[in-house]
Amino acid sequence: MSKPYKALIQACAAQKPQAQRELYQLFAPRLFAVCCRYAASEAEAEDILQESFIKIFQKISSYEESGSLEGWLRRIVVNTAIDHLRRQKQQKNRASEREAVEIPAADDVIADLEAEQLILLIQQLPDGYRMVFNLYAVEGYSHAEIGKQLGITESTSRSQYTRARALLRENLNQIYHQSYVYKDV
Amino acid sequence: MSDSFERKLQSRLENATRTPRPEVWAAIESQMAASRPKRRLFGWWLIPEAMLVLVCVSLAWGSFTQMGTPVSTGPLTALATTPEQGTTLSAIPGIERSASSDAETSPVLVAEAPVAAPAAPPTAPRLRATTTKTTPQTQAEAPVNASTLPVLTTAAYSMLPDTLSFKPVLIPPVPIVVPAIGLQLPEPHQPDPIHMSISAPALDRWSYWASMRLTQGMTTLASLDHSQYYRYEPVAIANSITQTSLYVLSLPRSEASLAVGAERILHTRWRVQAGLMGAVSSVGAYQQGVLPSSLQDTDNEGFEPVSSVLDSVQYGSQAPFRVVQLQVPLRIGYNWSRGRHSFTPYAGVMLSRTFVWRDRSIYQQEFSPDPNINRGFVSSSEYKIASFNNAELIRFRPYHVRAELRLMYEYRFRSSGIYAGPTLSYSLLPAYTGLAAGIQPRYFTGVEIGLRWGAGR
């Protein structure tokens, strides 16, 4: 059990409202950012966060020493997001079938963007793409794991990721041109 | 696809934060509260706990009623007598101003009582009176002292004339509140115990408590006008008839109380408490006695303080008396908890209303000017002892306020907790006012033990 949070976890396991509130206040901002990346809107992200914390409070007694508390919480949030989106059957591929075009300039934009702006860009991705993109690019899952999680084949995961990435880069490129190229003029 | 893109993205998003709206937590909180299993207010485990509390209360009550075995409760008649030469009232600070050289001829209340057997039967010999209360006739015979005597006698009699006849007075039974668990205490003096059914809404932030407290009063005041003696023991000098005999009134006050109440968590660690407390107090055994000459003042300016521990045969009678109060504690506390253990200091006020104020009996101890001679209560020819009942010189203030501090340690188990800790209270209003003297305890230290149950812990 992670030592700094040992007492807090024990109190949460005992269903103490005070401790639950404390845990929420500690981790909600980070976990909400994760939720936002998976959700299409802020309202949906709030739903995922709420559902996640209910699960966290119900399952916190099963949390063990292995791994960090934040990692454990993130996994729950990610799994909840996957369940949520799967349940709502919103995994509609609304993306255009355009081929991804590599635009090197987009990489430079990432460093200059606020995390919140990045999250907004990721939110604009179609549901299926967004899910695969988050799991692969941010959470570090392999395509095989993603396929297993989402009930799709590994190759589908790969292709969806490629398209998601291309869409994101395209969006980033637009921002690059609006802010940098236009600025130069 | 370049790895740098993912790396940059990952590093940018890894510690990203966004603050959710407050409504999200409100929704989570309400959902958790709804899913939380409701705790039963009463369970089987409460029965042994309640029995334990009742046993403790019974023991405490028993110890109070055993205090000061009554020897004589018979009627006391009084007659007037003239003190011996050299006796004066000037030793009383409040009185010396009005005492005159004619004090020798003034009627003085003196009492003469038969020797009380150490283990006297309930039908112990009555106090035989050799004095009488001040009447217009006796006052007329002693006009010089008319300004003095009413202070000591007439006013006192008019306040509580009951006691002058020394009729036996029974303390009314204390109503015992029995929680709704089907238990009932058999009380011979109590035909109908009050049954109270406690029910409370299962609100998340509320908890309920029942406690028992034993308190001992302390005072830092010691004498009427001797500020230098204020730090002495709880002793008051009530009256003096001669330079060799004194009345000593001692008011150590002990108290047993039983309380129920509710507590609400205000915010995180803060909580407020309110309740209802029934208290039975032994205000003290007021002592009547004499001082050895070595302890007396010779300058007629007052008295030396005297120990309230009157274990010497030189000291006289003792009359315990009781008070029954209804108290309302209002407190605020701050809680520190770790696991099952928690500490909560509380501060607040205790409002109380006194219902019963009675002396229970007159109890004569061995009484002799010579510690080596066990002669019992001395005759008027040897010592002049004022026989009025000091308890009656003390008027009781019916409403009373105390400031209170408590430090409670609590151990939680199952859905309840047991707590215990010391208490300290300070009387904000004087409990008594006295014509002769009444030194009220100002500080009360005690020990409290209790149970708490309910969700808001």
Structure description:
The complex is a heterodimer of chains A (185) and B (457). With 185 residues, chain A is mainly alpha-helical. In chain A, 73% of the residues lie in helices and 0% in strands. Chain A has 9 helices and no strands. In chain A, α1 (6-13) packs across α2 (17-38) and α2 (17-38) packs across α3 (42-59). Chain B has helices at 3-14, 22-35, 46-66, 93-96, 136-141, 149-152, 154-159, and strands spanning 80-81, 108-109, 177-179, 194-196, 206-218, 235-242, 245-250, 254-267, 270-289, 315-334, 336-338, 341-359, 394-396, 399-413, 416-427, 432-434, 443-453. In chain B, the strands form 4 sheets. An 8-stranded antiparallel barrel of chain B has the order 5-8-9-10-12-14-15-17. In chain B, β6 and β7 form a beta hairpin.
Instruction: Please tally the helical runs of chain A, counting DSSP H or I stretches of 4 or more residues.
Output: 9
Assembly level: heterodimer
Could you tell me which chain pair has the largest interface and how many residues each side has?
A: A-B, 39 and 34 residues
Judged by helices, strands and strand pairing, the structural class of chain B is alpha+beta
Q: What is the H-and-E element order of chain A?
A: HHHHHHHHH
Strand content of chain B: 25-35%
Globally, the shape of chain A reads globular
Return the average pLDDT of chain A rounded to an integer: 77
Spans of at least 5 consecutive residues with low confidence of chain B? 65-187, 219-250, 286-319, 358-371, 373-395, 431-439
Radius of gyration of chain B: 30 Å
Count of DSSP-assigned helices of chain B:
7
Order of helices and strands of chain B: HHHEHEHHHEEEEEEEEEEEEEEE
Looking at the structure, what is the overall shape of chain B? elongated
Uncertain runs of chain A: 93-104, 181-185
Q: In this structure, how is the largest beta sheet of chain A organized?
A: none
Total number of β-strand segments of chain B?
Answer: 17
Separation, N- and C-terminal Cα atoms of chain B: 56 Å
Approximately how much beta-strand content do the residues of chain A carry?
under 5%
> Which class best fits the helix and strand makeup of chain A?
mainly alpha
